[in-house]
Automatic annotation (TrEMBL):
The chain crosses the membrane at residues 21-41, 89-110, 122-140, 152-184, 205-227, 239-257, 278-298, 304-324, 336-354, 374-398. Its main location: membrane. One of its GO terms (molecular function) is chromate transmembrane transporter activity. Keywords: Cell membrane, Membrane, Transmembrane, Transmembrane helix. This is Chromate efflux transporter. Belongs to the chromate ion transporter (CHR) (TC 2.A.51) family.
Amino acid sequence: MTLTDQQATSRRRSVWEVGKTALLLGLTSFGGPVAHLGYFYEEYVKRKKWIDEKTYADLVALCQFLPGPASSQVGIGIGFMRAGVWGALAAWLGFTLPSAVALSLVAVWLQHHSWGDAGWMHGLLLVTVAVVAQAVWEMARKFASSRLEATVAIIAAAAVLLAPGAWSQVAVIAAAGGIGAFGLRRKNVALSSSAAGIPPSIRRSTGLTLLSLFAVLLVALPLIRTWIHSPLLALFDSFYRAGALVFGGGHVVLPLLEAEVVPQGWVTANQFLAGYSAAQAVPGPLFTFAAYIGMAALGWKGALVATTAIFLPSFLLVLGAFPFWHWLRRHPRFQAALAGINAAVVGILLAALYDPIWTKTVKGPADLAFSLGAFLLLVVWKWPAWAVVLVSFVGGWLRAWLG
């Protein structure tokens, strides 16, 4: 066997190993993006030793700077560094497939069973209040702690409530970025001289091409959608935009997607919230909620298109940003703009907590008490979200059965 053949065989084995490892993580990683990063650290850094701790920290920091699902982006980056583009695809597919399949099956089941007034379904809807309230609470403490950041958050919430719609949220995010760039101050982040950093495995020209493709698709897809009337193309556009513009993690995709898919008639508001609640109970990334909506709207083709579209920006951004990461993290104005965006994200999620979540689910004192109990389990007792969802499912059923 020649050296080239040996290298090709080694690369194929690496891709297979990346896929198997990511699949195991996709089957067992409960608890949301922060927990996912802990699982990744234990598996990729401590156990497999594919990258060192400093490189892992640098990659996590990069993915926190970018829109999209941070844990999935970290997995994509590790897969790429381990086995190239095919490794990145294997890492994403393994981590994403279990929850995407599970939520697609949930969508199929709900389409063939009567559930509109079911007590267990109302329990799932009510736990969504607690889950999103927890996300607002934790993000506000982190991203809206100063007076200016809190002001941006409240104004953002008011703006998207008074002018609902996906594009109003985009405008709020853009305005907050501008306010942050010129109104907030962030200290220059110095790189440790001993830090390994992200390996320069992509040329700057390739990075620019990927970032340009990201921007072109963001602008061109809505235009193409107006010329070509295809349900699958419309679905791809909506989910690509959601994946490209969501800062702050999986919970923040809720308001942007709700504004995109419910007015289109792809799912009802109750179907949307029920699927979002079900997404809390499965392992893997919350962004696989896209598979649920795609399946409910357009069957298996819709699930495939929606899932691909919402994660595509992550591939383009992570790989495209690799060559420029050291410059980005040293740039104070970029960091200040990101701080403004994160504050606006808190406000957008706060608005979503009121509408559609509160308005569609809390119908009286008993509903509020039920949601407060779920919030207590999540925030005070630190129960995992999947366990609270299970308890709420059973509690909703018992509440309806007992009358």
